[in-house]
Design goal:
The protein has 509 residues and is mainly beta. It is built from five helices and 45 strands. The strands form twelve sheets. Strands 3-4-5-6 form a four-stranded antiparallel beta sheet, with no helix packed on it. A four-stranded mixed beta sheet has the order 7-27-28-29, with no helix packed on it. A hairpin with a 5-residue loop joins β21 and β22. The longest helix is centred in the N-terminal third of the chain and has 27 residues. The chain starts with a helix and ends with a strand.
Length: 509
């Protein structure tokens, strides 16, 4: 027995020594671990990829782990360390971009917002007494708590990111310019006046993020720089693309679409602005708040006005108190009765009986009806008529420029056309003083740094100094838009630039 025990002990020592020797030989000779793995494969199953990490899986036990990265529909993605334009790109194994996370998206709180309401605010322009004015009883809209949170929807639970449209052709120094090239038909021209896109639309806007909104058959869609449809016309109204999304109206409610035209934020808002720094201002039940790219409120809708975010701040107004809100929802309110400028966009003229006043968009009266005529605010001032004279009020209803003009237009670029009793028109500043003395039988608003005037039955353009920079030689003229103005001489129409150079001729226009 002692002999057997001794022999057994010697055998064990020799066996251990042999194993140690094998490991040393393998290490010194730089042989792979495959020989050792062969010896133990009957006991352990080794996943080759995991073996390189030194992790073994017992035989018969399923390996539930996934490769490093993100799994989606059977594909594996890894986050690229390459960053372009402050954006994080997710790529597949072929390096195709699958997802782009921009600063200011829901994952980055530091990312006009409100497009705001800004894209849908009333345009400041001469108008008839009844245009864009609410007539009749104001009804308080019923609040709907359900609208303060985005409804549960798969479309809102997943981040939907697509590639941007094809970039504009390098030959274009700037995007094609929308112009009316035929009677009630819009197309696009290049800088040299050559037609880039034939006139086939009922209306056309400029390009934003490679796409332009156009109207066809009474519906809005989007085209690319070649004039091809990127999003077929199917919407009642749209805004420009910003941060990959555009406001779009269906059934009189606004939502947001992506570059493919898919409604990624359900249409349920009364008003919707453009995204900026990852959020957009929207209106629901008469109040403004801010949503993220998934349609979730990140700042509750409690404001009477909400502007675009710039450098982390946006203008907001609540109960006629104005201030600037941060992306975290913190508001720094201004002193009482100090609102002005863009805050005035929250007010709309309304007629009660035979007098006009102003209300917030939720119907609350903020300026009592006492004017004989009233128009929208432009640059913080609104023109109103009392008796036979026109003046300008601030958003508290106080006269900043007393009624003293026979006629007046809206402020634009810090000047407003105004006419005295002798029928001569000039331009006044926000203090009511003539910056350009009255001298013409008619004058229009400034647009693009120039304003139309009429002289001896012909139209020309003046600059803010009152200098006639485009002689009054045209039979008709329109305001500058996109740095071009449509004018007519005889039977022919022309688009001219601000140097009075003919860019494009339109026969018979």
């Amino acid at each position: 027995m002692d002999v057997l025990y001794s022999n057994t002990l010697v055998f064990c020592i020799v066996a251990v020594g042999a194993l140690v020797a094998i490991f040393l030989v393998l290490a010194v000779s730089d042989v792979t671990r495959s020989a050792l793995l062969t010896l133990i494969r009957g006991v352990f199953r080794l996943d080759q990829e995991q073996a390189e990490k030194g992790r073994f899986v017992p035989k018969g036990q399923a390996d539930q782990s996934e490769p490093s990265g993100q799994k989606d529909s059977g594909r594996y993605f890894t986050q690229s360390s390459e960053v372009h334009d402050n954006s994080t790109h997710y790529v597949d194994k072929s390096q195709k971009i699958i997802q782009v996370s921009h600063p200011g998206s829901e994952s980055s709180p530091s990312g006009k917002a409100a497009g705001q309401a800004e894209g849908k605010s009333p345009e400041c322009r001469p108008q008839s007494a009844d245009e864009d004015i609410i007539d009749g009883e104001i009804v308080e809209p019923a609040s709907d708590p359900a609208l303060t949170a985005a409804p549960s929807s798969p479309a809102l639970e997943e981040t939907i990111v697509v590639r941007p449209p094809t970039p504009l052709p390098a030959a274009y120094e700037r995007p094609p310019i929308p112009v009316e090239l035929a009677e009630d038909r819009y197309g696009y021209i290049r800088n040299d006046g050559q037609v880039a896109i034939a006139p086939m639309f009922e209306y056309a806007e400029g390009f934003s993020e490679g796409l332009a909104s156009v109207v066809s058959g009474g519906r809005y869609g989007f085209i690319d720089a070649e004039g091809d449809w990127s999003i077929r016309p199917a919407f009642e109204d749209v805004g420009p693309f910003s941060e990959g999304l555009a406001a779009a109206m269906l059934d009189k409610k606004y939502g947001y679409i992506d570059y493919t035209g898919e409604m990624v934020v359900i249409a349920r808002f009364e008003e919707a602005g453009r995204f900026s720094q990852g959020v957009a201002a929207v209106r629901t039940s008469g109040k403004y708040g801010y949503i993220d790219r998934k349609g979730r409120f990140v700042i509750d809708p409690v404001y009477d006005y909400a502007g675009s975010f710039t450098d982390g701040k946006a203008a907001v107004m609540r109960d006629m108190e104005c201030g600037y809100i941060s992306l975290m929802g913190e508001v720094d309110f201004m002193p009482s009765r100090s609102c002005g400028g863009e805050f005035a966009q929250a007010l709309a003229p309304v007629r009660f009986g035979g007098k006009f006043g102003y209300v917030l968009l939720n119907g609350k009266v903020v300026i009592k009806a006492r004017f004989d005529e009233a128009y929208h605010f432009c640059e913080g001032l609104a023109r109103v008529r009392m008796g036979q004279k026109w003046g300008f009020i601030d958003m508290y209803g106080d006269f900043i420029i007393k009624p003293s003009f026979a006629l007046a237009g809206d402020f634009s670029e810090d000047l407003a056309p105004a006419c005295m009793d002798d029928g001569k028109w000039g331009f006044i500043n926000p203090k009511g003083r003539f910056a350009i003395p009255p001298q013409w039988p008619w004058a229009g608003r400034f647009s693009g740094g120039l304003a139309r005037i009429r002289k001896e039955a012909r139209y020309g353009f003046v600059n803010p100094l009152g200098e006639l920079v485009i002689p009054a030689t045209y039979d008709a003229a329109e305001d500058f838009r996109n740095d071009l103005a449509l004018v007519r001489h005889g039977l022919d129409g022309f688009y001219i630039d601000q140097e009075n150079t003919m860019i494009c001729k339109i026969p018979g226009k």
